[in-house]
Amino acid sequence: MGVRLMVVDDHRLLAEALASALKLRGHRVLAAAAPAAGAAELVISRAPEVCLLGTAAPAEPGIFDPVVRIKRERPQVAVLVLGPVPSPRGIAAAFAAGASGYVRHDERIEGVERAIMKARAGEAAVAPGLLQGAFGELLNPAAQPDDEGARLLQMLTPREVEVLVRVADGEDTRLIAAGMGIAPSTARTHVQRVLMKLGVGSRLEAAALAARTGLLDRAGPAGG
User: Fold this and answer.
1) What share of the chain has pLDDT > 90, as a percent?
2) HTH luxR-type domain: which residues (predicted)?
3) Which of 38, 59, 107, 195 is the most exposed place for a label (fewest CB within 10 A)?
4) Are strands 78-83 and 50-54 parallel, antiparallel or unpaired?
5) Pairing of the two strands 101-104 and 4-8
6) Which pLDDT does position 183 carry in this prediction?
7) Where are the alpha helices (DSSP H) in 47-183?
8) CA dist 199 to 5, 107, 140, 192, 204, Å?
9) Cβ-count burial of 5 within 10 angstroms (0-12 exposed, 13-18 middle, 19+ buried)?
10) What's residue 58's pLDDT?
11) DSSP character for 125?
12) Strands across the sheet with 28-29, in order?
């Protein structure tokens, strides 16, 4: 017996192709495409047995809010997230939001159909390897970027932090020395120590790492 389901994805061609393939296998597909912003409303109004909900960025904060809303208003609907190869954090977030499983965009139609049947039966529909990664992520959460910035900041002395801020501002060794009232050779030594502690090979890499982790925001202005 076919499953009454929906395929909801921003990418219309992908959604329609998957919907057509599922129709050929005897399933009743209620809708094929919708923008992410309207996904929850569409699923809630149609109330399918299973919904394949597409996402392009499973690790982004709030990306699974539609799943939360669907499960709150239509708890009987099994939601399968359809997305790219996820990080363990993405898998964990999908299940935390109430999803019944995760199906990769490149999964064969047979695999998609197996996931649909498992979801309808109330089972977790996700590849064992992905599920293991998700549990590992929950038990041993990775450091967030802000945490990385704090860790890096603790590795540096106050003077080295000032050197890093000046490096990020584009100052060369001469300007660093003049601004800090030290000899150019001392400034050069400080720069090399900063690069070594950060594990980077150039001033440009050091500046990029500091900006990416929020270290510069924590450090404040040079000489401050």
Assistant:
1) 42
2) 149-214
3) 38
4) parallel
5) unpaired
6) 94
7) 65-73, 88-97, 109-120, 128-139, 145-155, 158-168, 173-180
8) 50, 38, 24, 10, 12
9) buried
10) 67
11) B
12) 28-29, 4-8, 50-54, 78-83, 101-104
Please provide the distance, in angstroms rounded to a whole number, between the alpha carbons at the two ends of the chain.
71
Rounded Cα gap, residues 11 and 56, in angstroms: 10
Radius of gyration over every alpha carbon of the chain, rounded to an integer in angstroms: 25
pTM: 0.58
Complete domains list, the chain, with CATH: 4-139 (3.40.50.2300), 148-219 (1.10.10.10)
- CA dist list (Å): 119 to 6, 50, 76: 13, 7, 11
d(CA 114, CA 127): 11
Cβ–Cβ < 8 Å for 133, 172: no
Residue 145 pLDDT > 50: no
Report the C-alpha gap between 175 and 178 in whole angstroms: 5
Task: Indicate the length of the chain as a whole number.
Answer: 224
Render pLDDT for 41-67 as a digit per residue (tens, 0 to 9): 889 999 999 999 988 776 677 888 999
Beta strands 50-54; 28-29: pairing state = unpaired
